[in-house]
Amino acid sequence: MGIFSEHKKEKIIAVFDIGSGSIGASLVKIPQNGRGVPIILKVVRNEIKFRENFNFSSFMQDMVYTLGLTAMAIYNEKAGAPEEIVCVLASPWYLSETRSVKMSREKTFTFTKRLASDLIQKEITSLTALYKEKYGQTDSAPQMIEQHTMAVLLNGYPVADPMGKKCQFLEINMVLSLSPKVCLDRIRETLSKTYQHIDVSFASFTVSSYLAVRDKYLALDSYLLIDISGEITDVGIVTKGVLKSVLSFPFGKKTFFKYICTKLDIELRDAKELFKLFSEDKISADYRKKITPLFASIENSWGEAFSQCISTLPRTLILPNTIFLTADNDIKSWFADVLRNEEHIQSSAADRKCNVVTLDGPDFINMCNVKEGTCDPFLMIEAIAFMRKTTK
């Protein structure tokens, strides 16, 4: 290295939040020395077209179109050229599998990086083969996009730094995320039209929120991560610091408004305005009394869908009573109240009473700065998670 060379202190990345209701993008300055926090320079967000009837092929086309608009919008902000692009996927663009890899021997052995890598790779190969057998070599076959090790246990005890330590039994808890090949190809192709010759990597929003919440709320080790947006509700179950399960069910923000449109025979724009007035208590008492049963019905339907979703879990599992909720601002408060009051959820919680924490952008301001614009909680969480992964 020459005497005038200087180690690069930071780099700019582009983060794309690819959901089922909207697509957000941000340009983020990442410190390279592991010190400091990511700084969001610019933010844009566009909604994906609302359709009355769901069709996956049309839905993907709408997503790709919105992604192209969003990429061009963040490019036109002229806030810097990204060196890397990170696409964080929400349902239904990905699926996650939690895995527990175990090994035991009669004689003591040493935990090494190579041993861990071999065990993890064996699990990845096994899972990949399983999906190839199920889907064949089709565009719909899932491809691995993310592998994250959450905890390592030696002789039954969690160890923060297991390298070089001896044991007779080890367990590695990890989460693997996959996405259909056709989805990944379409995303790369679309982004290459705006950002040429830039590497694109992928991650899942559930793992990103797990990393951000874990680092912010150090005193808690068991909780639910619930993301209600677009077409889908995602549920992550964290127990003793480990993401034990990732579930989803088709009842999200779009379902909520479709229900209102259908029952009242009104357009989406009117449904959103009605809900806004209802939430702000700006409608007459008589009309409020008339439509309150409608919202009670939606609450019950979502609660039943949640109950059916978690019924796939072992009966011995008691859900943590702390819930971290991410949702768009227009429906966040309503769903937070549903989570606090819905009997289907309360009956499954540890002490039959849920503590709901909404994850808002300003909550993460000490972990991620925003130079200008809105504190978009999704993009802030994703920037935090990226830095945690690259500087750990």
Concise overview:
By secondary structure, the chain is an alpha/beta fold. Helices cover 38% and strands 31% of the residues. The chain folds into three domains: 10-94 and 181-217 and 362-391, Ribonuclease H-like superfamily/Ribonuclease H (Nucleotidyltransferase, domain 5, 2-Layer Sandwich); 96-176, Dna Ligase, domain 1; 223-359, ATPase, nucleotide binding domain (Nucleotidyltransferase, domain 5, 2-Layer Sandwich), CATH 3.30.420.40.
Helix content: 25-40%
* CATH class descriptor name of the largest domain: Alpha Beta
Give the termini distance in whole angstroms: 25 Å
> Could you tell me the strand content as a percent range?
25-35%
Largest sheet: 6 strands, mixed
Strand order of the largest sheet: 9-4-1-2-3-15
CATH superfamily of the largest domain: Ribonuclease H-like superfamily/Ribonuclease H
Supply the helix-strand structural class: alpha/beta
Unreliable segments (pLDDT under 50, ≥5 consecutive)?
1-6
> What do the pLDDT scores average to?
89
Radius of gyration: 22 Å
Give me the strand/helix succession.
Answer: EEEHEEHEEEHEHEEEHHHEHHEEH
Number of strands: 15
Assign an overall shape: globular
**CATH topology value of the largest domain:** Nucleotidyltransferase, domain 5
What is the CATH architecture descriptor of the largest domain?
2-Layer Sandwich
